[in-house]
Specification:
Helices cover about 50% and strands about 15% of the residues.
């Protein structure tokens, strides 16, 4: 009895061609989508060349302040030239220091969920924008920015519309590469397309059908022994 049971347990599936080879295991499911490598958070800083434009703008503001002070000095019978020089020097120095401090505090961070801007001298501000909300990203360069080879990255969302960006990254070296990096993260957050989902379902159904057919053949050929 034990011998017959052992022989029954040791039987193999017999193919239609009479061979006793055991069929190979079902192949693993292969999907059309490729797994993306994990992405570490990336940080960006504005180029120091941005200070050239900012300090030039501070100089224009300082000239306007100096002229206003010079006019006031003329009314009060004070030397207008002295008033202009002092006001210009103070206004340009203070505004330039504020511009430098603000630029050094400016940070941009890109992770797998958000784009974040951190800035502030006296008051620190941290603003995050979910990647799921981003609809478009554009690169903008003015004449001075083209000369300095820097640019701006404008990030749009449905609430911002097509004219005003929701977020603006300024002073970016190689802004096109920054835009591509953000787009890569945005695409990684998007759900699978309908074609990918349908392809996966078809492959799963085919695998289950193959397993069912193999089990049916095994059940037909492995007949339990007669009881004595």
């Amino acid at each position: 009895m034990l011998t017959r049971q052992s022989a029954w347990l040791g039987q193999r599936e017999v193919r239609g061609d009479g061979s006793g080879a055991v069929p190979p295991e079902p192949a693993a499911i292969t999907t059309r989508r490729t797994e993306r490598p994990p992405m570490d958070p990336a940080q960006f800083q504005p180029s120091r060349l941005l200070l050239v434009g900012w300090i030039a703008g501070c100089g224009l503001v300082a000239v306007a302040v100096g002229k206003a002070v010079a006019g006031l000095c003329a009314v009060l019978a004070y030397p207008p030239n002295t008033g202009f020089t002092v006001a210009f020097a103070v206004a340009w120095s203070v505004s330039s220091l504020v511009a430098v401090a603000y630029l050094l505090s400016l940070r941009y961070t890109l992770d797998k969920h958000h784009v974040t801007r951190i800035a502030g001298v006296l008051w620190r501000c941290r603003r995050s924008l979910p990647l799921d909300k981003i609809t478009n990203i554009a690169v903008r360069q003015g004449p001075l920015e083209r000369v300095l080879r820097i640019g701006q990255v404008w990030i749009y969302t449905p609430s911002s519309g097509s004219d005003t960006p929701e977020e603006r990254w300024i002073g970016m070296r190689n802004p096109a590469a920054v835009r591509d990096a953000i787009l890569l993260r945005v695409e990684a957050r998007q759900p699978a397309s309908a074609e990918d989902v349908l392809q996966e379902r078809q492959e799963i159904v085919a695998l289950l059908a193959d397993i069912r057919n193999r089990l049916a053949r095994v059940e037909r050929h492995l007949v339990p022994p007669d009881h004595e």
